[in-house]
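Progress narrative, work stream C.
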Amino acid sequence: MNKRDIIEALRDETGLTKEKAMVVVDMFFDTISEALAKDDRVEIRGLCSFYVKNYKPYSGRNPKTGEKVSIPEKKLPFFKCGKELKERVDY
């Protein structure tokens, strides 16, 4: 399922026009993205939670040359599945 499929499902279920359904879906994803950019946690009970994980800088190695390189500090978004979703998938 992709974004277009979600928009079509919302349109079919609610009777919204395709344009209005697109606005709702875009607003939903934009709101989650903005919250994560601010290091906020997003929790959708029964479905999942999104959060940002911080990584400290470390030294790595270039696999081609074997040269040591410094990896800077970074932040990555993470998704954690909710209990109800796990149970629904593993029925």
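Work stream C, second folded protein:
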Amino acid sequence: MNFDKELSTRGLECPLPVLQTRKAMKSMESGQVLKMISTDSKAMKDMEEFSRQTGFPLLSAVEENNECVFYIQKK
């Protein structure tokens, strides 16, 4: 999937991945896509909730090799 910015939150625990994602999204333009990588065990649930609360579409959320990879689009 194409993306405009990548954010690694590897090694960070909740709520830091969500807070850093929110900060990264603020610097992006509408329509751009953020790739966020997390090792937090709660990341799947947290990012689904982040998407619901902000209205930013969660385009993809997959877990592979003990990492969660998310693609989030700024509305």
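The chain has a mean pLDDT of 97. No further action is required on this item.
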